[in-house]
């Protein structure tokens, strides 16, 4: 079966262009533009796919870490194995796109690379649980493969998200929330999250809705841990032995008139 003929809007058969038709003055230039755009879209597609997988692995690391029971100790063997396996997968994924992020390309694909914020969140959460200190930018950079540069934005916004994980961990492991006992001098999540929150409050404001939104979520996380500590220390003495406050009940009782 022969191929159909091309027709114009009036239905008339269009004349076929001779194969040896002369090229225009700008033909080569537009072919170069076409090739550059094709390379850009292919590069972006690779980065988006890798970023999606890195985000998924980072979230699963965080989920595993939320099951840790205590602070300032090494992780259980099964948790450490899970984290090591997922970090190896993340390294492989990031190495596959490292050549695509050289020179100015790193800043052309800022939005697809939001996975690095999620990765910093996972790294900072693991670092805090194991050492009860905040991960430094240099330590976070050392955990990613060569060729992938963590920007100040990646680090700061990843640590912003750490507040939410500390709040969730404190809600489950409530024995780590109470203020340090004067006898043992042990630091707790309550004091750590307050100190970190104060440090973030002193940051110069970054223009944009994203920064303001992150700051508000951070303040909410700090207040929730403070309310939880308040319920355990003050109101817990009025309750039966073994009682722990429910966060929903706490929120409801705050808004009810006295």
Structure explained in plain terms:
The structure is a single chain. This protein is mainly α and 258 residues long. It has a single domain, classed as Methane Monooxygenase Hydroxylase, Chain G, domain 1 (Up-down Bundle). The protein is built from 9 helices and no strands. The chain has helices spanning 27-65, 77-97, 105-108, 115-131, 137-142, 152-172, 189-201, 209-233, 247-255. The longest helix has 39 residues, at 27-65. The N and C termini lie far apart (86 Å). Residues 249-258 have low confidence and may be disordered.
Assess the beta-strand content as a share of residues: under 5%
Poorly predicted regions: 249-258
Cα Rg: 27 Å
Individual helix count: 9
The domain tally reads 1
- How do the helices and strands follow one another from N- to C-terminus? HHHHHHHHH
Query: What would the average pLDDT be, to the nearest integer?
Result: 82
* Class of secondary structure makeup: mainly alpha
β-strand number: 0
Helix content: 55-70%
Given the C-alpha coordinates, what overall shape results?
elongated
List the helices and strands and how they pair.
Layout: H1 27-65, H2 77-97, H3 105-108, H4 115-131, H5 137-142, H6 152-172, H7 189-201, H8 209-233, H9 247-255
Helix pairs in contact: 1-2, 1-4, 4-6, 6-7, 6-8, 7-8
Quick structural summary:
The protein has helices spanning 27-65, 77-97, 105-108, 115-131, 137-142, 152-172, 189-201, 209-233, 247-255. It has 258 residues and is mainly alpha-helical.
